[in-house]
């Protein structure tokens, strides 16, 4: 599973050539690089990963909710390649 992060900060970073995705926690950097290359037809230069541990929080009614652990990948591309998914139309 590779899911793009389309937030305001993520779209601003995409203008600089850094694209962010949520990925499966079991994938390593080499596997992430291969999957991005296959899905979007680009050449990945580097991959940085961030692990988020699971959390337990209370909602506004006091019920306890468990937030699942996640892994985020920040991908830089070679040259002036772009991923069309992150383009912002004005």
From TrEMBL:
GO terms for cellular component: ribonucleoprotein complex; ribosome. The keyword Ion transport does not apply. The keyword Ribosomal protein applies. Pfam families: Ribosomal_L23 (PF00276). Keywords: Ribonucleoprotein, Ribosomal protein. One of its GO terms (molecular function) is structural constituent of ribosome. Belongs to the universal ribosomal protein uL23 family. This is 50S ribosomal protein L23. It comes from Candidatus Woesebacteria bacterium GW2011_GWC1_38_13. The lineage of its organism: Bacteria, Candidatus Woeseibacteriota.
């Amino acid at each position: 599973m590779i899911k793009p992060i389309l937030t305001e900060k993520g779209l601003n970073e995409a203008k600089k050539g850094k694209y962010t995705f949520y990925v499966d926690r079991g994938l390593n950097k080499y596997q992430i690089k291969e999957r991005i290359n296959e899905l979007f037809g680009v050449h990945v230069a580097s991959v940085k990963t961030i692990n988020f541990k699971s959390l337990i929080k209370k909602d506004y009614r006091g019920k306890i909710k468990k937030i699942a652990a996640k892994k985020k990948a920040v991908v830089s591309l070679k040259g002036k390649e772009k991923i069309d998914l992150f383009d912002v139309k004005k």
